Amino acid sequence: MMISTRLLPLASLLLAAAVFGFFYAWVCSTMWGLDATDPAIAIQAMQAMNASVRNAMFFPAFFLTPVVLAVTAAALFRESQRRAGLWFAFATAVYAAGGFGVTALVNVPMNEALALVEIPASTDAAKQIWRSYSAPWQFWNQVRAVASGLAVLLTGIGLIRIT
Questions:
Q1: Of 25, 72, 138, 162, which has the maximum CB count within 10 A?
Q2: pLDDT of 105-138, one tens digit each?
């Protein structure tokens, strides 16, 4: 077995788990905390967090996960580890569609729209803006958290299928 078919599966697992943990934290704490605060503060905080997430720490987990999963699947197929490679291919497809795709097509456009919002002085106006943003954003974040979690599971199955 080549070194790439030993290290790539572990790198795949690490990256998939990192992005799952990122999305999961938003599900179980961050958004609930923002929902519980003053809506103007929630808008301001979310604008700041969305601007800060574009960084070198987030890049590998979000952008490289589908690449490393796909490279792992290909390497395993090349090494005649087809059963294991299939699980990594499934993980690639699930994350690419449900994690990366949902983020690019839904959450990022919502974040970009929120970035343009000027925080209103009226509490009622801020509450309306936050409610119209938070509920759908959270739904789609849950979709990407589930997809990313499933990618971790599929990656784990792939790991135990390597002979």
A1: 72
A2: 999 999 999 999 999 999 999 999 999 999 999 9
